[in-house]
Fold these 2 entries.
Entry 1:
Amino acid sequence: MKSKQPPELPKKIPTHVAIIMDGNGRWAKQRGLPRLAGHRAGTENLRRVIGACIEFGIQYLTIYAFSTENWGRPEDEVLGLMKIVEDVVDRELQELHDQGVQLRHIGRLDQLRPSLREKVLRAVEKTQNNTRLVLNVAFNYGGRDEIVCAIQHILCEGVKPEDVNEALVSRYLFTAGTPDPDLIIRTSGELRGSNFLIWQGAYSEWYFPATYWPDFDKEELRRALFEFNRRDRRYGLVNTKGKGQEGPGSNVCQ
Ligand code: IPE
Ligand code: IPE
Ligand code: MG
């Protein structure tokens, strides 16, 4: 008798997956290594997860790499993180470009040191026409800061109060043009949002694996997608058509 193989992938692939890449420090501590070794391992893992996203047909991936609150960490960790990011851009940009990844940055660039700022801008420009996967890198990003920034721009442009609505606000966020995330994953077992996509995540599904980020691999991502498929997204409505009904606001699932 033939045994039935479980499907490789679930039916619905989320259009946009966002990840809070947490647990690098604890991963390093477990191994008696310095925290920066954890950040380097986390960066290596990112390459694998990007490959898996492309393979699974995810169109947008947003990663939380450095929050507005992370400036408060010890100076050597902050400087180390800046250096790791610069090295990653130097080392990985060509391969990401060849894979068809379009890099975008969300957060405030003006507070970054000039060498990093310029590298980010160059990477964004070089990959702007790629279409396989949009990779939003949240670096020096905070959800509240993003909303403050949007309000400042709206006021500066003299938008009339009666013209302010949810669609307009969305267009003033760093993520303008990106659909809201369908699935937000936070690794390491912490059960909080830590100022990530607080506007865009209003109706996202959340998933909290216990795995530390450097160990979150393709199989873990596959598990997250199966879990996403078990969710019943009701958007505040009453589900009359059975499980899996999508609400009117949904522009997300295939
Ligand atoms: C996430 O890992 C990476 C950044 C915040 C830059 P952490 O550094 O927060 O790792 P833990 O939470 O201390 O284990
Ligand atoms: C959130 O993780 C920020 C990033 C992963 C970049 P943190 O480790 O900084 O958040 P808290 O301190 O646990 O809330
Ligand atoms: Mg953490």
Note: The pocket of IPE (ligand 1) is lined by residues 21-26, 66, 70, 81, 188 (CB under 6 Å).
Entry 2:
Amino acid sequence: TLEIIIRPPWWQTVWAYTIYAFLIGLFGYLLYRYLLNRQFELQEANRLRELDEVKTKLYTNISHEFRTPLTVISGMGQKILENPKKWSIEGGQLITRNSNYLLQLVNQILDLRKLESGSLKVQHVQSDIVSYLQYLMQSFHSLAENKDIRLHFYAEEKELVMDFDPNKIQHIFTNLLSNAIKYTPEGGDVYVRVEKDEGGRARDEGGRAKDRSTRSTLQIKIRDTGIGIPEDQLPHIFDRFYQVDDSSTRKGEGTGIGLALTKELVQLLKGEISVKSQVNKGTEFNIQLPISNEGPLQETARDQIWGTAAGTAKEGTGKNLLNKSTAVADTNPLALIIEDNADVAKYIFSCLEDRYQLLWAKNGRQGIDMAFETVPDIIISDVMMPEKDGFEVCQTLKQDVRTSHIPIILLTAKADMDSKLEGLRHGADAYLAKPFEPKELNIRLEQLIELRKKLQDRYRNTTSFKQQSGNIEDEFLKQLNQVIQDNISDENFGIQQLCRAIGLSRTQLHRKIKALTNKSTSIYIRSIRLAKARELLKSTKLNVSEIAYEVGFSNPVYFTQVFSEEFGVPPSEMR
Ligand code: ATP
Ligand code: MG
């Protein structure tokens, strides 16, 4: 026998296999590390993007929230400098109100920061909380009245002495109350109910008896009959900067800080807050605060303990001035202001009132209706408004023949290029960023009115106009001329018949024609008749009276007279 041992080649040795295994292991590990890293990176990127979105939202919200009062403040400041006698009182009020609002806003943001870093301390006093809440509620009465909302206050006990931090309670309560009013449509109700709950009967049925005897809580319920919050949004509303409706058409103003701050404050006070809501039925916030009686007892000298705690609710008292009919001549151009913030509207009024007749619409929808109805000479519109935003207003009005010719200025707190382009794309004629200078506004207005004169020049020679541009004004005049031409020999064809044929009201037609041609409707009809007459004189052998009848004049003498007025020569000579 010959024993032959075949040795494996080096790549099949035990050593080689060990190395293979090691290499595969290493490779696997590296791959795993790589994938893990990638996942981290993706997550990180997502997180950054989310953060970025939150930031952008914050910036747009905050800047809008700041710019609006700033517009009023800086504008009114200038007004006062220009004419101290006239504006000092009214302007002073507006400035005070709006700067208080700004201050409140800044304080809220700072409070949130302080809460975060844990440096906000509770300062208890012992006093009657029921009367304190009633007192806080008072500052909301005028706000609610303006919106035709009824406020109801119900307390189980007339008086309830306990520890509380007036400043924190003020923040919590006013935030919830202002939300309730803000998100409840006109004619609704807001109920506040204060109850003492002995030992939390509803919550721990499991019978933690020792808690029961010691921990009684105060319940404050704030219920409204407003728009409600969709169920899927409920978990988010306490998030910072979260707003259920964050479109530019959202109702009311706000930054989405209110509830976040409220929740943090309630937690700081060792309480709980919960919410129930049904869309279009209403919302109820429920706050539970532990009751203790340890703090320094205070007599009910309100102002001493509560100091300046009373809320500076934003009151929409702008109405009064706006309703005051501005005493300007009827010949001044008619301007429509579409702006939801009464103070800003008031300020714009003050800039324009001696040169324009002014109308005010509180939101986009009302603005559109009023524009159709009155056909103003110029429109100044905010962008962020309830119901319909400025872009929609622009688009709707520019596409409707009744209002397509009206220049529109968009006024907005969003000053970036994109919004500007967006505005222009929707047909705005100019775009002004808040806060704006009154001079700038006036110059813009003059420019636009100037532009309209050019338009009038273009349409002056109404009959020779045969351009094929397809623009809405051309089409309108073409149609108008056609209708008149079709009825030219009918002497009874007048304004009424024309309105019916075109489908516009008398005022609408009048203001439209006036804007385009600077002529009244009857003069416009006449000028078309006369132009036709001139054409007939040149192209036919008919005599003057025949031509007069032909173009709808029953009296040849009158015809001769107006013809001479229009063209400077009598018909016979024209021929
Ligand atoms: P602000 O910072 O000025 O309070 P905000 O009111 O928009 O701004 P929050 O108070 O934090 O912000 O409220 C967050 C969102 O929750 C609101 O934007 C609103 O959509 C919704 N919300 C709050 N309260 C109510 C309510 N009573 N009814 C309906 N929706 C509400
Ligand atoms: Mg709020």
Note: The CA atoms of residues 107 and 422 lie 34 Å apart.
